[in-house]
């Protein structure tokens, strides 16, 4: 039996995907989550064969959840299920380690095909993303081999703080969310801005949008 974890903050999406996958005898849904942190905890415990994650999960975005799942459970394959078809989101999902990027408007037949491709270890990107995204990804990968991506210098906690700052959270709110002190949150901000060569709070938000970590309001 192939075990699958679903994470999406919209119950109707989870129900639809669950119903589709459970109609196939080889699939078993072993866990569901409506936020990123819960998805990560379930993945670490259940170690499913496949995790299907919404890109913009609350609490911890799908990109960061992907990175941490693959670290905690290397055999788990990750497919991103998203409504965003723009290239930055696709490329960041691939960089994070996702093997598939599936648009939410896809047909049920295509979703099943994408899931099976992912489980077989073959990259899948929903049309019309495939050609341009793979080409851009390969180009970016080539550039990355010549120059380190500054984002890779951030710690996992600094990436969390970056996302929260970009969403407008205060030091006090970050401290409460991450169970750290406001002073520590400020220190993380200072360090991540230095590593990314950012100068102002507006730079943080713009950087997060350009990386596909958040979407413009």
Describe this structure in words.
The mean pLDDT is 89. This protein is of the alpha/beta class and 217 residues long. The protein has helices at 11-22, 36-46, 62-72, 87-96, 108-119, 130-146, 156-166, 171-178, 182-196, 201-210, and strands at residues 2-7, 27-33, 50-54, 77-82, 100-103, 124-125. A six-stranded parallel beta sheet has the order 2-1-3-4-5-6, sandwiched between helices. It starts with a strand and ends in a 7-residue tail after the last helix. Helix 4 (87-96) packs across helix 6 (130-146) and helix 8 (171-178) packs across helix 9 (182-196). Helices cover 54% and strands 14% of the residues. Helix 1 links the parallel strand 1 (2-7) and strand 2. The chain is built from ten helices and six strands; from the N terminus they run βαβαβαβαβαβααααα. The longest helix has 17 residues, at 130-146. The protein has two domains: 2-145, Rossmann fold; 150-210, Winged helix-like DNA-binding domain superfamily/Winged helix DNA-binding domain (Arc Repressor Mutant, subunit A).
- Following the backbone from N to C, one meets helices and strands in this order, namely EHEHEHEHEHEHHHHH
Q: Distance N terminus to C terminus? A: 41 Å
Counted by DSSP, the helix tally is 10
Task: Estimate nothing, just give the exact number of structural domains.
Answer: 2
CATH architecture of the largest domain: 3-Layer(aba) Sandwich
Tell me the name of the CATH homologous superfamily of the largest domain: Response regulator
Mean pLDDT: 89
Radius of gyration: 17 Å
Shape: globular
């Amino acid at each position: 039996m192939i075990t699958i974890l679903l994470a999406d903050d919209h119950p109707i999406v989870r129900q639809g995907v669950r119903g589709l996958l459970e109609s196939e005898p080889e699939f078993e849904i072993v866990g569901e989550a409506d936020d990123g942190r819960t998805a990560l905890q379930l993945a670490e415990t259940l170690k499913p064969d496949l995790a299907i994650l919404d890109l913009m999960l609350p609490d911890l975005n799908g990109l960061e959840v992907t990175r941490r799942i693959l670290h905690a459970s290397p055999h788990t394959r990750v497919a991103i299920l998203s409504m965003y078809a723009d290239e930055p989101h696709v490329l960041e999902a691939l960089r994070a380690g996702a093997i598939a990027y599936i648009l939410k408007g896809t047909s049920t037949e295509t979703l099943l095909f994408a899931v099976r491709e992912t489980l077989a270890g073959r990259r899948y990107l929903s049309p019309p993303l495939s050609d341009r995204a793979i080409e851009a990804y390969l180009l970016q990968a080539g550039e990355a081999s010549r120059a380190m991506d500054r984002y890779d210098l951030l710690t996992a906690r600094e990436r969390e703080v970056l996302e929260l700052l970009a969403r407008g959270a205060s030091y006090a709110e970050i401290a409460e969310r991450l169970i750290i002190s406001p002073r520590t949150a400020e220190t993380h901000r200072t360090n991540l801005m230095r590593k990314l060569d950012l100068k102002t709070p507006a730079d943080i938000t713009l950087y997060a949008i350009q990386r596909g970590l958040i979407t413009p309001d």
